[in-house]
Design brief:
The protein is an alpha+beta fold. The chain has 33 helices and 58 strands. The strands form 15 sheets. It has a 5-stranded parallel beta sheet. Strands 40, 41, 42, 43 and 44 form a 5-stranded antiparallel beta sheet that branches. The longest helix has 54 residues.
């Protein structure tokens, strides 16, 4: 039906012409404020009919919403359908508002409702189709993005999803291409279809996402596992810092297990001790050599480990260096505990992070920090096993390990210790210590009922020999074998020694001989008693050797045998077949053939790279003792074979190459991963052994005969060609102190040989000086031997030709010393002005005043031996002569005695005198302890009584005291008198008087002399008191005061420090002085047994000096005092001569350009402040400070050309530093105020450079006190270290300025050089690289050191007031 308003037009329309586009009528909306329900019904009917007609006329088949959605869109179609849709909605609203609407109209309204519903559904379907298509296209684009080549899962996942999307898209296309009216009429069906498409699409995407999530979960889990592995690896790496011995635990299987059925009673007793919490905490398995202690310990460890109760184990061995040193025991036990218990690992990692050097601390600190504290915190219950404690190197009268263990076992109620060891004196004494004896269960293995031991040995032999018979089916062995009578005989011959039985079994087991014949050989031997594995085992060893080489008459064969056997038994660390072959210069099959028949006494692995070990230590003792080994074919001449091994070691060392491990330049040792593995790969085990032990073999070599010349020749060649490479390897081995010991071993041998060795002696001494002078450097970095140590060596040393200038960053050194000089070594403790120092024959102890730490260094090598952390601050230190005890006086009025090997507290004394302690000392044999107080009183205690005696009090004030040779005698001095006291009787034995007041006194035990220093008017007067003769003699000192002094070790000389600088040595026999250069304040002097003098220098640290005549030098007055920088690469140096002089030096050649001296007459250059302020080549001006002859401090400027003063101004305080502005118009200076030890404020002053007029000044307080360095950005903007300042003219003034604070930041002194000095003043750095080491004293300690860095140069002023310049590669 056509719309009624188009009837006429439709009749005239051509038949074939398309219908005209209808013009949509305008439907006016109902007016606002006139609701439909208030309209008349008739009107509503008319409106409803009109709206219905409009809607029906527009809704023709030629205009469908689906057409507009999916066909080519047309504005007319959209417009007509929107109009119909709006008209239909209005019609329905009008009709619903009419309550009396006619029935036909209601039917039409119903049709309109269906029309609107279909339209809405059709529109929704169209939108949904469009959304589905867009989503499919978007997903397709995403899936088309590239995937990593390795992600096969993601590729498969995307392929599957694209297949599903393609299926949905194919189903969707037919629906979108249907005719509009069909789509319109089937809206409901299409909606269901589209919903299923959406569901399919959602399912496909969900499946894809689920698969991804599963992978993410898997990957996350794997990442978590990987992270955990990384954490565990990091923890293990951190644990490796403990330096554990990895083959020291029971898992290494160094010993056989007890044969089943043997040692049951012993093992049962030990297991009952383990399980019973009421048993004592420590179990000592005490047995003689050869009684099977280690076998029992191995078996017990396995049993406890199977039960889950073994915490850690350490099997000591004298054959291995790392298993015979006490310092490795506790770190190794801690490492094993950390691997066993996660909670313990967490604690120990925390300990290592807090103190990375904990494994190098004292034994007591190791035990507490690595074992006791972590175990206490985690409440772990376990057993710790230590086997063969007697095989560790320990020079204490009581075992050091047992001493520290006794102090802390009570702190570990859940931990038990199982220890085995022979009853040697130090082991017995250790277990008898008061703290350890009550908690130790001792089991005497050698006192077990002999019948039980014989039963076990018989069972062992029966099992072993039966197994041998079963394994030798090719031989005719009688059955039964062995016979009961044979077993009885063998058991009797063993005499309770399992070592005899086990050696016997290994002897019979030889695959090259018939077992029964070997058995009969032993049985037919005459009986012999056994004691400690000597007499009883000797015939067996003899039989083994004779049968192994029976029928051989060649002398050469036995010579080779002794060479090989000598290498095996004399090696300081076990060697493998490969290593022995390299050392002896033979092939490996030769070693195999030689040792083929000795498997009963040697443990010879199948692997040629594994170490050969002796089965029992009684075998090497047998071979080296002519009273036990009577056959000269097998007797090893110990010195001769040591000489052979020394020559073999030296030959290996001569093959060392430069940088053997191919390390990168400037690398620090700690940054090289797996150094040990790298050394094994690049250097090899044999050469590593040679590096460590060659000198020990030399020391034990013959001192007469041909070997002396051979060794001298070989050692000389080695030092000339490969000595530096040897030091490099020892640095990487972290055993640099062994270089010092090795050269001292060589010197010991020199003293015994009958041949003069001047050339080799000089070479060795040069190497010793080189190592000790650069010890601190080489210990940190092996490559810096070439980059720093060699270039900085003296010009006359043998090392200068070894410098590889093309590989070192240094191209020139100015100020390098000609010779080594008196300084042997510097122990870098920093400034010692607040340090207390004490020495013994073996160590040097230093404690910082009022601090809680004592550092103890080896007196020979300078290496750190011990770090003691105390609870109370320290005010005095002292030492026992043999080095076993260090004394500490504390601010709380107590004195503590510390064991220097274990680091444990030996005793604490509470003193009666409550005054401040001044000094402490222990008598020669350690019986008495004396304390001197600030009030001049002396208190003496008897050590054995633990301080419970009355002591001795003296009313007269005492200045100093020292113990004498007789144990009970104490020399005290005060005022002008010296008295000898008997501290037991409490009486004065002798008295001496002096003319002047006494300020110090020293004693020589060798000659029983006292040297008393008194202060005269202009000099120090030294009085020598010969106590044996009871006479005193007066020595007049040079016209200069002594500050500190000491006897030389021989007591023939007195060593003293001059208050003006340097050391003086006075010979009592020649009455002559000689002087040594040392430009530093000395706080301490002492002599060592090796003749060296220990000096505590205020700025340079602790120095070891040689008082050899070769190094004596007259005092040198011409020394650089201060230095300041100039522009254009020059510096100014102020020198102290007879009169002040200023010199301008050109840094490229260090030549003098200009000297100013005449115009400085009448002024003094003070020693306590910097004389130079600033200099400028632009202004041709230098500014310096002077002290007037009548007093007062002045700042003066001088022109560089005419050398005439330009201006002079009086100042209140000497500036610490000054700088000219870039244009040279202003001078900025910084002044410190307050005492030197507590700067309370500072000030910045700005001066007119031309007139010297003060332009501005600013006082600074607190944290804004600047450093002495100033840098300029412009004429009016400059920096100190922490702050930036601006300089402005004051309002209304032409010359007066004001200084304003701009910001707080940290700015270093600017420099165009790529080479700088780091903050520690120990290294020259280029970026983050440490390029060159700065030796101690090369930089003055004042204001972080005077130095200037040019483009490729560094000029430094040292503590010795000498200028040095380093030139670096561009």
């Amino acid at each position: 039906m056509l719309p009624f308003w188009n009837k006429s037009s439709s009749s005239t329309r051509p038949t074939n012409s398309p219908p005209p586009t209808p013009t949509p009528p305008v439907v006016e909306p109902v007016k606002q404020g006139l609701p439909i329900k208030h309209t008349k019904a008739k009107d509503l009917s008319v409106l409803a009919a009109s709206a219905t007609a409009i809607a029906l006329s527009v809704a023709s088949p030629s205009c469908s919403p689906m057409d507009t959605a999916l066909d080519e869109p047309g504005p007319s179609k959209e417009s007509c359908w929107k109009t119909a849709y709006e008209a239909a909605k209005i019609a329905i609203d009008i009709a619903n508002a009419s309550s009396d609407m006619c029935l036909p109209l209601k039917a039409v309204v119903g049709a309109l409702s269906v029309l609107i519903k279909n339209y809405d559904q059709s529109a929704d379907n169209a939108d949904q189709i469009r959304e589905i298509e867009e989503r499919v296209e978007s997903l397709s684009e995403i899936l088309a993005s590239p995937v990593g080549d390795r992600d096969d899962k993601e590729k498969a996942r995307r392929v599957a999803l694209r297949r599903k999307l393609t299926r949905v898209f194919k189903k969707l296309r037919p629906l979108s291409k249907q005719h509009g009216i069909v789509k319109f009429l089937k809206n409901a069906d299409h909606s269901k279809t589209l919903n299923s498409f959406v569901q399919d699409l959602a399912t496909a995407v969900t499946d894809y996402q689920t698969s991804i999530q599963q992978d993410i979960y898997g990957n996350t889990k794997k990442i978590g596992e990987d992270i955990q592995k990384i954490i565990e690896a990091a923890d293990l790496k951190r644990l490796e810092e403990l330096g554990p011995v990895h083959n020291a635990g029971h898992q290494a299987g160094h010993h056989d297990l007890c044969l089943p059925g043997t040692r049951e009673a012993v093992l049962d007793r030990i297991m009952r001790w383990t399980k019973n919490p009421q048993e004592r905490r420590v179990f000592w398995l005490n047995g003689l050599a050869g009684t099977g202690k280690s076998t029992i310990a191995q078996t017990f460890s396995g049993m406890v480990a199977d039960a889950g109760a073994l915490g850690a184990s350490f099997f000591c061995s004298r054959d291995y260096l790392d298993r015979k040193e006490l310092k490795h025991i506790f770190p190794t036990l801690a490492y094993q505990l950390a691997c066993r218990y996660p909670a313990f690992r967490e604690r120990i990692i925390r300990v290592i992070k807090q103190d990375p050097s904990v494994a190098r601390n004292s034994l007591i600190s190791q035990l507490k920090g690595l074992i006791v504290d972590p175990l206490s915190a985690t409440s772990i219950t376990c057993v710790i096993v230590v086997d063969a404690l007697d095989e560790c190197v320990d020079d204490q009268p009581a075992s050091a390990i047992l001493s520290v263990l006794g102090r802390h076992v009570k702190d570990l109620p859940s931990v038990k210790f199982f220890i085995t060891g022979r009853p040697e004196p130090r082991i017995r004494t250790g277990f008898r210590l008061p703290l350890l004896e009550p908690i130790t269960q001792t089991f005497l293995l050698h006192e077990v009922e002999p019948s039980n031991v014989d039963k076990d040995i018989r069972l062992y032999l029966q099992e072993k020999l039966t197994a041998i018979a079963k394994g030798r089916s090719d031989l005719d062995v009688s059955d039964p074998w062995p016979r009961d009578c044979d077993l009885t005989t063998l058991t009797k011959k063993s005499s309770g020694l399992f070592i005899f039985a086990s050696t016997l079994a290994r002897f019979i087991e030889s695959e090259h001989h018939e077992p029964d014949k070997r058995l009969q050989l032993i049985i037919n031997q005459p009986d012999c008693t056994a004691h400690e594995g000597v007499a009883g085992i000797d015939p067996l060893y003899t039989q083994v050797l004779e049968l192994a080489f029976s029928g051989i008459e060649e002398t050469e064969m036995f010579t080779n045998l002794r060479r090989v056997l000598g290498t095996v038994v004399l090696a300081f660390n076990p060697l493998s077949r490969e290593q022995i072959a390299q050392m002896l210069g033979v092939d490996v099959p030769h070693i195999k053939t030689t040792l083929r028949h000795l498997h009963s006494v040697l443990i010879v692995p199948e692997d040629d790279s594994k170490e050969i070990r002796v089965f029992h230590k009684s075998f090497p003792d047998f071979l080296q003792d002519p009273h036990r080994c009577s056959d000269p074919k097998f007797l090893i001449d110990t010195p001769t074979h040591h000489g052979q091994m020394a020559l073999g070691c030296l030959e290996l060392l001569k093959k060392l190459k430069l940088n053997p491990c191919d390390l990168p330049d400037f690398v620090m040792n700690r940054d090289v991963p797996d150094i040990s593995g790298l050394l094994e790969e690049k250097v090899g085990g044999a050469t590593r052994y040679a590096c460590s032990y060659w000198a020990m073999h030399v020391r034990s070599s013959p001192t007469t005969g041909n070997y002396v010349l051979l060794l001298i020749t070989s050692a000389t060649e080695f030092f000339n060609t490969n000595g530096v490479q040897w030091i490099e390897v020892m640095s990487l081995e972290n055993r640099l102190e062994s270089v010092v010991h090795s050269i001292n071993h060589l010197f010991d041998w020199f003293g015994m040989v009958d041949t003069s060795t001047p050339n080799l002696h000089n070479l060795a001494e040069d190497y010793l000086r080189f190592t000790k002078n650069f010890f601190h450097l080489i210990q940190q970095s092996a490559p810096h031997i070439y980059h720093s140590a060699l270039p900085l060596s003296p010009r006359s040393s043998m090392f200068r030709p070894m410098i590889l200038w093309e590989k070192t960053p240094i191209t020139g050194v100015y100020g390098c010393p000609d010779t080594w000089g008196a300084a042997l070594q510097t122990i870098q403790t920093g400034s010692v002005k607040n340090w207390l120092i004490a020495t013994s024959d073996h160590w040097i102890a230093a404690a910082q005043r009022k601090r809680h730490e004592v550092v103890i260094h080896d007196a020979i090598t300078g290496a750190l031996r011990l770090l003691l952390r105390l609870e109370d601050s320290i005010v005095a230190v002292g030492g026992f002569q043999d080095g076993t005890i260090v004394l500490c006086g504390h601010s709380n009025g107590s004195v503590t005695l510390w064991d220097t090997q274990t680091g444990g507290l030996a005793r604490t004394f509470a003193l009666k005198n409550k005054a401040r302690i001044k000094s402490v000392a222990i008598s020669m044999k350690g019986r008495f302890l004396a304390c001197l107080f600030e009030n001049g009183m002396v208190e003496v205690l008897e050590v054995a009584k633990k301080g419970k005696n009355d002591g001795i009090w003296e009313a007269s004030p005492v200045t100093c005291f020292c113990w004498l040779r007789l144990e009970e005698q104490l020399a005290v001095a005060g005022g002008v008198w010296v008295q000898i006291w008997d501290v037991v009787a409490g009486t004065t034995l002798r008295s001496f008087t002096t003319v002047e007041l006494i300020f110090d006194m020293v004693y020589s035990q060798e000659l029983d002399r006292l040297a008393v220093a008194t202060r005269g008017s202009f000099r120090t007067i030294t009085v020598i008191i010969d106590l044996q003769k009871g006479k005193s003699s007066v020595l007049l000192q040079e016209p200069e005061w002594l500050d500190r002094f000491a006897f030389s070790r021989t007591a023939e000389e007195i060593v003293g420090s001059m208050m003006g600088g340097g050391l003086g040595v006075f010979s009592l026999s020649t009455q002559r002085w000689r002087y040594y250069k040392l430009r530093d304040t000395v706080n301490f002097i002492s002599s060592l047994p090796n003749g060296a003098v220990v000096v505590g220098a205020r700025s340079s640290g602790i120095q070891l000096l040689s008082m050899d005549d070769r190094y004596a030098q007259p005092p040198q007055p011409t020394l650089v005092h201060t230095v300041t920088t100039l522009d254009q690469g020059r510096i100014i140096a102020l020198r102290l001569e007879e009169q002040p002089a200023i010199q301008l030096l050109e840094t490229s050649t260090m030549s003098n350009l200009f000297t100013l001296s005449d115009d400085l007459k009448g002024y003094n250059i003070g020693n306590d402040f910097d004389g130079l302020v600033a200099a400028s080549l632009k202004n041709r001006m230098v500014v310096y400070c002077l002290v007037g002859s009548g007093g007062g401090e002045y700042m003066q400027s001088c022109g560089l050309g005419d050398k005439l003063p330009i201006w002079t101004v009086k100042i209140d305080s000497v500036p610490s530093e000054g700088k000219f502005s870039p244009a040279g118009t202003r001078l900025v200076t910084i002044h410190f105020h307050g005492p030197w030890f507590e700067r309370t404020s500072s000030s910045i002053s700005v001066w007119d450079a031309g007139t010297g007029k003060l332009q501005a000044a600013k006082i600074l307080f607190g944290p804004y006190i600047p450093s002495p360095y100033i840098t300029f950005d412009s004429e009016t903007r400059f920096h100190s270290e922490y702050c930036t300042y601006n300089l402005e003219l004051s309002p209304g003034a032409e010359t007066t300025h004001q200084i304003s604070f701009l910001s707080s930041y940290r700015a270093m002194e600017s420099s165009e050089s790529q080479y700088q000095v780091d903050r520690s003043r120990e290294w020259v750095v280029r970026g983050s690289e440490k390029i060159c080491w700065i030796p101690p004293g090369y930089l003055s300690s004042r204001y972080r050191g005077h130095h200037w860095a040019g483009p490729n140069t560094l000029v430094m002023l040292g503590e010795d007031r000498v200028l040095r310049k380093l030139t670096f590669r561009s």
